[in-house]
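Hi everyone,

Forwarding the result from last night's run.
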Amino acid sequence: MSDQKEGILEIATWLQSPLGRYLLDWEQQCLDQAVADLFGFHALQLGWPQLDGLRANRMPQRWLAEEAGRAQLQCSFDELPFESGTLDLVLLPHTLEFAADPHHRLREAARVLRPEGRLLILGLNPASLWGLRQRVAPCLPSRGEFIGYWRLRDWLRLLSFDVPQARFGCYRPPLNREAWLPHWAFMDRRGPTWWPVFGAVYFIEAVKRVHGMRLVGLAKSNGRRRAAPAVALPSRTHRYD
């Protein structure tokens, strides 16, 4: 079995654990809220099929891509099969943490986004109880590398992204037993106020800016937006109905 397939299997197994399900529940709620009011034509999620990140979105073309797996759209996340500036929304759920070159993968996501397109990123926070425990007694998948929140913000800024929204979540300690996690639910209620940047996971919504470019945006006739440019699509795609 290849290292890539072993890594996918390890993540899938961990996501079925109490700690993994706790993480997925928070991330699913966060994404459902974030994508519900994002409009456009083309949306793409890279990896983590256990997370249905685009289910609440209403764009007519929505794809789930995997590098290896059951998804109909299989491609390299470092060489996406889309023309530059053609997607309205790209979702990276922990996609950067498992990249050999996360900065290159981020640049590739930026390339396929149109000006004013949205990039949604989920990442594990090294400055958290989960991150501290991972260094001593690992409780998360062994593959992958934590990318700090502020480090990622710097990368986005260098790629001309603005960050209008960011959130942290999953403040409970990394106790991987079903009976223990509910006793610490109060930390999720108080965490955003008492220790806001120390949640185990962060969510970033970034907007691609093109400096010096004036967007015409909406056509004034009937107040309707013009169609997006044609997208170079693979022969097999996965659509959400």
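The longest helix spans residues 18-35.

Cheers,
N.
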